Amino acid sequence: MRRRHGNRQRLGSRNTHGAPKTLDPVSAMEEETREDHDAKLASSKEAKDFLSSIESRELDRCLFADSLITVSDTGRELGEFTITMQNAVYNNEQCYLLHANSHGSIDDIPCGTSIMAYISKTLETLEQNHHEYVQLQDHSLDRKSHMVRHGDQLVVNKIITEGEEVKSQSFTFPVSSLEGFVSEASNLLILRILAQRKIFPENMVFLSLDTETQICFSTYKVLGERKQLLGTEFMDVFGIQRTVESVTDISATWHCYFLSDGHLASRVQVGSPVTMKLLHKPADKVTVEKVEKPVFEKKPLVWEEDMQMFSRFLDRKEELRSSHASYVQEHPELKALLADFLQFLLLRKPDDVLSFAVEYFAPFGSQRAPGTSTPPVL
Length: 378
Hints:
Elements lengths: L12 E2 L10 H14 L6 H9 L2 H5 L4 E8 L4 E14 L2 E14 L2 E11 L5 E11 L4 E11 L2 E10 L2 E10 L9 H14 L6 E6 L5 E16 L2 E13 L6 E7 L5 E6 L4 E4 L29 H24 L2 H16 L4 H9 L17
Antiparallel strand pairs: 1-9, 2-3, 2-15, 3-4, 4-5, 5-6, 6-7, 7-8, 8-9, 10-11, 11-12, 12-13, 13-14, 14-15
């Protein structure tokens, strides 16, 4: 594939303590060569035109949930994969909240991935939390990354825990060099839009980050249509191939097939022994009428022979309950965040839940300054 030229600039990386790395002459030369190479990367015109062509009504048609099961090549059920997308607000900006979660076990080894992100109306990633884990009997691997936009910079903080060893890194990229950038979260939204359109240019080349947090190419290609059994009915599904061309590792390719409305029907990483499949056709969307809040008549109860005080107590209780419910409804990320934490908690079953919670949530704090890798103390 012909690579286009751009003006990407890597501002640097930091070690566990947040101090700049000291490079020996050979490493400095390799770093300079890599930066020179990365400076030539840029998304294609077709990719940029596609992003600018997306309309609000197309995005609104993507506000639904997907739920698939993960099966082995022998048909054994291994876990599940879910994606939800809904309207949200981020720093007073109307946007979308996307939550993807995959968990299960392969060869009786628990593993999983969780992504929660805020995506703007123009498909820019405002903030993203990405968590991957593999739980072996005597050895575990845990990767957490937090991506957030601070002004004109995109900051990525990573914490990798392998056994007892913990490694922290921080990377900063100028937003001006990331035109046409696609995160793992925005990729899931782009796939839904492409599936609904079915027709898109061949040279769809975006920018992305590989597993080593280096800028690389991310491409999309049409796989065409085929039949897939959903329940008792064969249905037409449309295929899209996505490839992330890693700078230092082998490329990763996924084949995804969708129903005409954008629902994911199957997903597989090329070379992987597992496949994610939709078992039954999703139910048609129905309009749910707004249910009026029930009004409960207060019963005349005597509380220390002061009816007025008890009445005020009930009023205040109802006011707080309504306020709490409204807050939860306005922040749907709460359910996704707590669900991921509870799942990981039950997997590890720590004796000290409080310390475990501090360790789990600390790396994802968005209040630390750009370029710092040390998480805040809760």
